[in-house]
């Protein structure tokens, strides 16, 4: 049975569905650092680790597959997404490259996280993909993405609170601290849509 007023939910993967801190141990291991997740106050980890963007891009190129395979689930993401799948359309829009589709699908399967569409765009600019899928809202951890999506599409964006995305937020971007909180907010949006 199809829900009467489903939402099309755009969802980032890394730092949103996966635990935001999962990259830190791998970066520490590779670069001989002992940084904590709380030390990562800039989304650009090259800046945090004192390396060039090229060195970081090369590191991600070599270690991306391992990172995407070992990342733990972020809080109750798996449980909430399984519930949403029955009522809403789940579209994952990620900066991961298309070549990582297989490891991504295996990870989703391992944790029994459902999806309707998986769009690995290989870029942080998610605007075209969000437009293509006509998302009603977006879940994100990168501040710049959240601001761009909310402004350009006039949709609500739920920004998962992290050390690297602090700052003033406009009306349509709401900071959230758990998947349970997002679940309640999505229920509220679905109800508003039904009553509109």
From TrEMBL:
Transmembrane segments: none annotated. It comes from the Bacteria. Keywords: Hydrolase. Its EC number is 3.1.3.-. One of its GO terms (molecular function) is 5'-nucleotidase activity. Belongs to the 5'(3')-deoxyribonucleotidase family. This is Nucleotidase. It comes from Brevibacillus aydinogluensis.
